[in-house]
Amino acid sequence: MDLRAIMFLLLLQLVALCYARPGWDQAVDNENLGGSDEESITETILRMNNGSSEYLLEGDLVIPRARTAMKCMNKKYSCLWPKSSNGNVEVPYIIVDKYTNEEKGRIVQALREIQARTCIRFPPRTTQKSYISFEPKFGCPSQMGRMGYKQVVSLQRFGCVQKGIIQHEVLHSLGFYHEHTRSDRDQHILIDWDNIQKYQRYNFKKQDTNNLNTPYDYSSLMHYGRTAFGINRAVTITPIPDSSVEIGQRRDISDLDIIRINRLYKCFNYEM
Ligand SMILES: [Zn+2]
């Protein structure tokens, strides 16, 4: 074999190696995908997103290149979905074909529940420029607010396609941060900084949030669990003054989550 042929074979091998690394579109170790009944929404999201090649804020927020997620709520209405003349707010979506019909049904059902109690409407996308694309990429990250173009809500199969997580990620794309980073959180929770990995501490930075005159909500679908980013699952978030209050639920969108959507989007005919 001449030198050029050998070089060519080496190059081929290198390319194959590059594609073999786990990442987007490749399922990670199946053993880690099952989850358990005890797992909180936080743990599921963080577990599914662990190893993502994207820079993720607070574990599941993709930082867009065009602007930072931090500024989103500050720029007046720039990251909100626009209101139609009929008072509803349309958030067009598509679900890519990589899901089974059953999984697609779960996504549609999760959207319907938000739609039933708010003025947000989720029509299947036709030609709209801004829309959500549900895709089984790596983990379950989302972007903050409306981006103005196709924005991917990743729902990796066998882990992220469950109601609580679907709604959690959709709430991010409607413009909501995590409850534990609310501007007034220090009156409601204690953060144990010593139990958080140093390089994960930025995930607990307070955001300059618009709290929409709603009380702090321990039962929010956007609240992380006690051991989020904890070293060896150590407690990082403790409710005060009553430390026994449940946080990190993943079952349902809370009443206050609904009220916040209605206030942010001025859904006057709904619960505000
Ligand atoms: Zn999140």
From TrEMBL:
Gene3D superfamilies in the cross-refs: Collagenase (Catalytic Domain)
InterPro entries: MetalloPept_cat_dom_sf (IPR024079), Peptidase_M12A (IPR001506), Peptidase_Metallo (IPR006026)
EC number of the protein: 3.4.24.-
Record lineage: Eukaryota, Metazoa, Chordata, Craniata, Vertebrata
Keyword list, A-Z: Cytoplasmic vesicle, Disulfide bond, Glycoprotein, Hydrolase, Metal-binding, Metalloprotease, Protease, Signal, Zinc, Zymogen
The Peptidase M12A domain, residue ranges: 68-268
Main location: other
GO biological process, one term: proteolysis
Keyword set includes Signal: yes
Gene: ChLCE
Compartments reported by the entry: Zymogen granule
Provenance organism: Corythoichthys haematopterus (Messmate pipefish)
GO cellular component: zymogen granule
Necessary cofactors: Zn(2+)
Protein's recorded name: Metalloendopeptidase
UniProt-listed Pfam families: Astacin
Catalytic residues in the record: E169
